[in-house]
Amino acid sequence: MWGCLGARATERAVNIGVLTDMSGLYKDLAGEGSVVAAKMAVEDMGGQVLGIAIQVYGGDHKHDVPTALDIAGNWFKDDRVGLVIDMPNSTIALAVQKFAAERNRISVTVSAGSTDLTGKACSPTGFHWAYDTYSNSVPLAHALVAFGANSWFFITADYSFGHILERETTRAVEEAGGRVLGHARHPLNADSFNEQLTAAEDSGARVIALANAGGDTINTMKEAAELGISPRSQTLAPLLVFLSDVHALGFDVARGMTFIDGFYWDRDAETREWSKRFFARQGVMPTMAHAGVYSAVRHYLRAVAAAGTDDARAVAAKMRELRVDDFFAHGGEVRADGRMVHDMFLVQVKQAYESRYPWDYYKILSVIPRDRAFRPLAESECPLVAK
Fold first, then answer.
1. Per-residue pLDDT tens digits for 214-225
2. Which of 26, 254, 346, 356 has its CA 20 to 30 A from that of 364?
3. Neighbours of 363 (CB within 10 A)
């Protein structure tokens, strides 16, 4: 467990449990920073709701479903946790979302991407913030194929997130008139990507799409640079990139890299003000995951206050009713399937000489409006959505 805020709440289940990766390949994009972001949201909401001081707990799921469910179960039973949040790992997020609904608790996935969370596995008390495998693949695939990058090969993390990301992107590539030549899969937190990169080179595909994340994306990019894979012959297209990944790669490897993100700390005055507060506590600029955790915790607490109860069904209804009014979403909406929709951004990593100060990494090329960034509700497989 990591830290708590305020006196121990005993009356109602309104505490926050940040279930994240504290020690693995996603620790930089989420991890302790997600706990800090949750605490900032609680503090900014006055530290209490319904007259009860709110505690924030942090737990390391270690990419293990039984461990994750054990932590969440103890929080629900012993620590009056009403919201479990973050969950960077789609397999864990899917399991915890189901587990939370069965115990009448709210779950918000921020760092995991599977569209199944708001699709066939949707939950009346489950929500998905920040991004998903659709938002980070479909607009990018359409754009690249339109520019002539019409043959693709995937290097894919061999678990739920990677499979769904590959599936979503494949559909988008083919819809745009491109074709997929093959894929090579790797275990989570792989030691080497030489075999997968060699297969991608041998395929002759114009685009090598990386359907992985965090440390796996960083290491795939580094090995590709060492092998001399160049945009002159093949374009590396990482489908999920966080600011922490760019920071780890540096300009020599990341420059010119184009991808989709849901948040950039230096976008406007509001994002800069919050991000500098986060930096003062954590020593790094926040990722989309950190900003998303802050946004979701704040929205949850607003919903609890508006509902006047900690009952998860009542709170969930309020979360769907209220607009998401903050620097992250700027009037975002929470749909019937639990998907929070907001604008996304097509960004490109600057050249080193273009960077004016530390963490000045992105050029925002275009805004992807919320109605195009996420799968249309009419196409949802969620049983909660009226057809």
1. 999 999 999 999
2. 26
3. 14
Residue reference for tokens 């061999």: 158
User: pLDDT by residue (tens digit) across 43-58?
Assistant: 999 999 999 999 999 9
- Phi, psi dihedral angles at 260 (to 5 degrees): -110, 135
- Please say whether the beta carbons of 36 and 282 come within 8 A: yes
At residue 229 the predicted structure's pLDDT band, cuts being 50, 70 and 90, is confident
pLDDT above 60 for 313: yes
Which of 321, 312, 173, 328 is CA-nearest to residue 261?
A: 328
Note the pLDDT tens digit of each residue in 237-251.
999 999 999 999 999
3-state secondary structure of 179: strand
pTM above 0.90, yes or no: yes
C-alpha span between 290 and 38 (Å, rounded):
8
- Would you state the pLDDT for residue 4? 43
177: nearest Cα among 204, 135, 211, 143: 143
Q: Is 260 left (phi over 0), alpha (psi -120 to 50) or beta?
A: beta
The length of the chain in residues reads 387
- Residue 386: predicted pLDDT: 75
250, amino acid identity: G
Cβ 178 vs Cβ 234: under 8 Å: no
- Cα(65)–Cα(91) distance, rounded to whole angstroms? 7
Looking at residue 353, what DSSP letter applies?
G
Distance from chain centroid for Cα 359: 20
Of 3, 38, 119, the C-alpha closest to 301 is 38
Q: How far apart are alpha carbons 296 and 117 in whole angstroms?
A: 16
| 3-state DSSP assignment of residue 120 | coil
Please, are residues 58 and 36 in contact by the beta-carbon 8 Å criterion? no
Which helix or strand (DSSP H or E) is residue 11 part of? none
The radius of gyration computed from the CA coordinates of the chain, to the nearest angstrom, equals 20
